Amino acid sequence: MRRLIVLGLAISMTGWAGSLQLIPVIKGGLKAPVGLVFEPGRSDLFYIIEQKGRILKWQKGQFDKTPFLDIQNRVTFGGERGLLGLAFHPLFKSNGRFFINYTAERPQLTTFISEFQTGVLKEKVLLQIEQPFSNHNGGHLAFDKEGYLYIGTGDGGSAGDPLNHSQNLNSLLGKMVRIGVDSKGLYDIPKDNPLTSPQQRKEIFAWGLRNPWRFSFDRETGALFAGDVGQDRYEEIDLVEKGKNYGWRVMEADHCLTPPRGCNREGYVMPLTEYGRSEGGSVTGGYVYRGKQLPDLKGVYIYGDFMSGNIWGLSYDQASRKVLQNRLLLKSKLSVASFAEDADGELYVVDYSGVIYRLAPGL
After folding, report:
1. Which of 29, 37, 255, 299 has the highest CB neighbour count under 10 A?
2. Which residues 6+ apart lie within 8 Å of 176 measured at CB?
3. Which helix (H) or strand (E) holds 92?
């Protein structure tokens, strides 16, 4: 079964797990949404990130009258710049702490990782990362089960990582960063972070990334999956692990880039899967499905593409460390900017045009 795609209507297609559909939850009132985050422990209360610098709160079928956060006067917006990430502290219900990732020109374009607290307007800047170019800003934030904050950073932009930031262990660009946020200072370094040399940034958890646009932890296994946006030819999904190097700028997915032939692959981790330009042009990382409404997809990593709207499902076996299946689930034609997971493990899709959908069984 396949339905025509009309804004605000359900989208469905017969696929790997039978018939699936995307049911609209919010049909309007959003401008350039790039993320959706549920309040910890809730499936009925969520927050939408607008790239221009607002976070809107949605509950009981409507928006709150005033934005949860409005920092449009601080954010530099345009292209890949803007307010890009939000993460609630695991104890948000009791401490009201939350963290954001945004870009601003002060005067150099800079990524800011900042903490706020509900009811308090003061911004606490934890990290500032200067951006040499306007694109590849990463932007995602997420907490793991141990309460550490992970930050995905792009390589600094342009093309081909001309300043070689991703392989430079003294730069926070092109990395997965991990910090603790419960210390008395701005932040602390987890004791088991992999780098120890004085010439290396100890905040680094993994490196060799180009532009990790959305990552997530499997709520059952703790595995960290990320979509890393490619350059001209390939998009990739990575299983991100401590102390690993994912190859950029030497590799684009599983292919040599610098040099274009005969590169040395030793020491690089290849992606779980990749796809070329016939299937999409900008990967959007998703979530391992752990809900109940789609039992055939249990344990399957759901991800998509911003350019084509394709949504895939990847089945990965951690014991054998092998991909078992990777199949197309939906051809949505949406601008898939982000996925979201509620407390029940059900998944949502953010369309950059301004609509929020829920992934559901087909009719």
Report:
1. 37
2. 150, 151, 152, 153, 204, 205, 206, 207, 209, 212, 215, 224, 226, 240
3. helix 92-95
Domain ranges of the chain: 1-25+277-363
0.85 exceeded by the pTM? yes
Q: Are 360 and 293 in contact (CB under 8 A)?
A: yes
Among 326, 330, 318, residue whose Cα is nearest residue 359: 330
* 256, 247 contact by CB (below 8 A): no
| pLDDT tens, position by position, 164-220 | 999 999 999 999 999 999 998 999 999 999 999 999 999 999 999 999 999 999 999
Q: What is the DSSP letter of 244?
A: -
List, for residues 3-42, the tens digit of each pLDDT value.
Answer: 333 334 466 654 555 679 999 999 988 999 999 999 999 9
Closest CA to 360 of 334, 327, 329: 329
